[in-house]
């Protein structure tokens, strides 16, 4: 197994563990997003997730800080979710695998692109197993790999379309197309 394939496998295992732990800790919540976020130079990714209940908490937190915001403004702002970085410790074993390939600024752009593809592939592999559900239960969750602060709406959709069935993206696509789009 080559280095990137090994990383994809390790990411798959870490993502599986993070999602399983989150669902076990919050079994009554309605999750609508699970993803990995990284940088354009493919640093080791971090997990993030969003639920309707977590979205309410994020809105309340912003309002308590004096920021007037509604749920639609924060729905896809995954780094504002209370579940951003949930399970990050499960990705600790992946970090040395990335480090073994050199620093992000030292790696070739081709290798960084391959690492980003491995992140998308890890989630796609889990999805192909039915790990995130089937039918309506699968369509209720958007999976994605993002680079917050750097993604355009087109980037967000391109990545999401590589992983998700069309039914899962109805709301995501509509929200991204709306004025103001979504945060990556």
Question: Could you give a quick summary of the protein structure above?
Answer:
With 184 residues, the chain is mostly helical. The protein is built from eight helices and three strands, in the order αββαααααβαα.
Separate helix tally: 8
- Provide the spatial order of strands within the biggest beta sheet: 2-1-3
Low-confidence stretches: none
- Structural class call reads mainly alpha
Number of strands: 3
Percent range of helical residues? 40-55%
Shape: globular
Q: What is the gyration radius calculated from CA atoms?
A: 16 Å
In N-to-C order, the SSE pattern is HEEHHHHHEHH
> Major β-sheet, in short?
3 strands, mixed
The N- to C-terminal Cα distance equals: 32 Å
Strand share of the residues? 5-15%
How many structural domains does the protein architecture include? 1
Mean pLDDT: 94
Secondary-structure blueprint:
Elements (H helix, E strand, L loop, with lengths): L2 H23 L5 E7 L8 E6 H13 L6 H4 L20 H5 L9 H20 L6 H5 L2 E5 L6 H11 L6 H8 L7
Parallel strand pairs: 1-3
Antiparallel strand pairs: 1-2
Provide the descriptors you would attach to this structure in a database record:
mainly alpha, globular, 10% strand
Would you mind describing this structure in some detail?
The chain is mainly α and 184 residues long. It has one domain (3-177). 48% of the residues lie in helices and 10% in strands. The chain contains eight helices and three strands, in the order αββαααααβαα. The protein has a three-stranded mixed sheet with strand order 2-1-3. A hairpin with an 8-residue loop joins strand 1 and strand 2 (46-51). Helix 1 (3-25) packs across helix 5. It is globular and about 45 Å long.
